Amino acid sequence: MKYGIVLTYTVTPRWLALAREERNAMRSAHLEPVFAAYADRVTARFFDAEAFNGRFSDFVVLETEDLGAYYFLVEALRDTPVISEGYLAFGEIFLGVEDGFQAYERARGNGTGSR
């Protein structure tokens, strides 16, 4: 099964107080290596959201067939200074199964979806 995960997060005023060069250096040094380490099992697309809502500033859409790899990616992110030193805080997380009803129907053996 393929899972889709929307992980919302907010960058803090501490992050925004850094010069853009410092932010880019932290991103390169701490975040990109974590995503690269799991890129063979978890794909990621990043979106800015602060101009469109007030609950969170950004979100990432992750796709994986390995929830363990996703979990380890999040744990590795939490170990970075970006998270542990309060530059970024995770928010709501939404998880779904791609075409889960179809997998269920195949597992039932009929594929018709009848109840």
Per-chain topology:
Blueprint: E1 3-11, H1 13-16, H2 20-37, E2 42-48, E3 58-64, H3 67-78, H4 81-84, E4 88-97, H5 100-108
Antiparallel strand pairs: 1-3, 1-4, 2-3
What structural class should be given to the helix and strand makeup?
Answer: alpha+beta
Count of distinct strands = 4
Largest sheet: 4 strands, antiparallel
Helical region count?
A: 5
**Termini distance?**
22 Å
* Strand line-up in the sheet with most strands: 2-3-1-4
Shape: elongated
Q: Please identify the oligomeric state.
A: single chain
- The percent range for strand residues is 25-35%
Radius of gyration: 17 Å
- Kindly report the average pLDDT value: 93
The poorly predicted ranges are none
How much helix, percentage-wise, in residues?
A: 40-55%
Order of helices and strands: EHHEEHHEH
